Amino acid sequence: MIINSRDDALRFFPLLDPRVDIPALGYVGMPSRWAAENTTFRMTDAAAIVGRQHSLTRYLESATLSSVIATAAVAGL
User: Fold this and answer.
1) What are the pLDDT digits (tens) for 42-59?
2) Residue 59 neighbours by CB distance under 10 Å
């Protein structure tokens, strides 16, 4: 899972519906208790690479993040 703890769009996500107090998963990450039993996952914070941007292009242009995405995509095959 790739998150961005500096993404302004995700940071303000809770303001979309103030009745629901839920942060964006892409901003805070996923609690490990949500994963199925015997499932491991890794979170990578892209903030240092992407900054405050909310753009898929920035993620894909990064060799580091592209490697994380590609490795996770073929894991377990």
Assistant:
1) 889 999 998 887 788 888
2) 19
C-beta of residue 26 within 8 angstroms of C-beta of residue 7: yes
Q: What is the dihedral of CA 54, 56, 57, 58, to 10 degrees?
A: 50
Is the model's pTM score more than 0.85?
Answer: no
Strand, helix or coil for residue 73: helix
User: What is the rounded distance in angstroms from the CA atom of residue 18 to the CA atom of residue 37?
Assistant: 32
DSSP state of 68: H
Other C-beta atoms lying within 10 Å of the C-beta of residue 26: 18
Count, in order, helices (H) and strands (E) of the chain.
5, 2
The residue among 7, 13, 19, 68 whose CA lies nearest residue 41 is: 68
